[in-house]
Amino acid sequence: MILTIGEKLAKVELNLMTTIKSLRTKQKEDTSLLTTAQSRADKSEKQLADLKLQLKKANEIEKKNTERLKAMYKIEAANEAMKRERDAAQVRFAVGRRLI
């Protein structure tokens, strides 16, 4: 009877030791996965910050380019107006020359 109880206790102890071992292994795996996930999250946050900075710079460049384009359109419009004035002056000059 004592041997039977001893065998049962040994079996229970073996089961508990196996359970403890598997839980420790699982804990190590979970810790490793958590560390990996945290590393990925940190990397993603850094990439997000970099992308936000790139977007800000791109928006600034786009704004400058838009302003330059508007200035160019104004210059082209002024140039066209000057060409029309020149052409009109040449016509007046040619007409005046004929009259002389």
Written account of the structure:
By secondary structure, the chain is mainly alpha-helical. It contains one helix and no strands. It has one helix at residues 2-99.
Keywords:
rod-shaped; 100 residues; mainly alpha; single chain; 1 helix
The string of secondary-structure elements, in order, is H
Largest beta-sheet details: none
Gross geometry: rod-shaped
The level of helicity is over 70%
Mean pLDDT: 95
- How many helices? 1
Number of DSSP strand runs? 0
Spatial gap, N to C terminus: 145 Å
Q: What amount of the residues lies in strands?
A: under 5%
* Stretches with pLDDT under 50, minimum 5 residues: none
List the helices and strands and how they pair.
Layout: H1 2-99
Short account of what is shown:
By secondary structure, the chain is mostly helical. It has one helix spanning 2-99. The mean pLDDT is 95.
